[in-house]
């Protein structure tokens, strides 16, 4: 599993990495994660494996987004959708800059829940997104009911903008500006080992 980005997080003393999703290797794992009771209310993908495979193939062929597995010390435990706002349904919810990016995530392995890993992982992938020099803002639109996730986004440096109506949910539009992010987490990423 070749990572596109890896980072040793000094705050949790764990190696975090992200690898692109591969259909044959990852479909069954991702389908299992989507059946988790704490995932279903927000992702609504508790569907048959056959239907999920169709969904995943469609998402993998969508050129405006990239799907990743998030790993801690080499163990796959989370799923990430990094996307360009242009070309996404969210682009109609605000006036996007052409290089704005967005992020969706879920923790798939229950053993990793409640251990304080969501923030370091989110911080790492947002840092990865900001490696694209023209991106000055990463956005998120978590389900407005998902207060835990909204709190994690805020701790990362995202700020609430407004509730928005999307086809599958009412989301809370949130922005994370490069300047805010880099100022907040400079010490974490300075001198850290990372590879792209």
Automatic annotation (TrEMBL):
Give an example GO biological process: siderophore biosynthetic process
Q: In terms of domain of life, where is this protein from?
A: Bacteria
Task: Extract one GO molecular function annotation from the record.
Answer: N-acyltransferase activity
One of this protein's Pfam families, by short name? Answer: Acetyltransf_8
List the Gene3D superfamilies hit by this protein, alphabetically.
Answer: 3.40.630.30
Which SMART domains does the record match to this protein? AlcB
Q: In which pathway does it act?
A: Siderophore biosynthesis
Function field: Acyltransferase required for the direct transfer of medium- to long-chain fatty acyl moieties from a carrier protein (MbtL) on to the epsilon-amino group of lysine residue in the mycobactin core.
| The protein, known as | Lysine N-acyltransferase MbtK
The species this protein was found in:
Fictibacillus phosphorivorans
């Amino acid at each position: 599993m070749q990572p596109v980005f890896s980072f040793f997080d000094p705050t949790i003393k764990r190696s975090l990495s992200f690898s692109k999703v591969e259909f044959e290797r990852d479909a069954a794992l991702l389908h299992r994660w989507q059946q988790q009771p704490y995932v279903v209310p927000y992702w609504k993908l508790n569907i048959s494996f056959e239907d999920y495979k169709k969904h995943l193939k469609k998402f993998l062929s969508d050129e405006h987004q990239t799907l990743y597995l998030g790993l801690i010390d080499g163990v796959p435990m989370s799923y990430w959708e990094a996307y360009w706002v242009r070309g996404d349904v969210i682009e109609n919810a605000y006036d996007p800059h052409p290089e704005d990016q967005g992020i969706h995530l879920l923790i798939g392995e229950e053993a990793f829940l409640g251990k304080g890993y969501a923030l370091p992982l989110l911080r790492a992938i947002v840092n990865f997104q900001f490696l694209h020099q023209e991106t000055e803002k990463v956005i998120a639109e978590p389900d407005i009911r998902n207060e835990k996730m909204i709190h994690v986004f805020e701790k990362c440096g995202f700020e609430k903008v407004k509730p928005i109506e999307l086809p599958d949910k009412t989301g809370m539009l949130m922005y994370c500006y490069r300047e805010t992010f880099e100022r907040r987490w400079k010490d974490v990423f300075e001198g850290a080992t990372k590879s792209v």
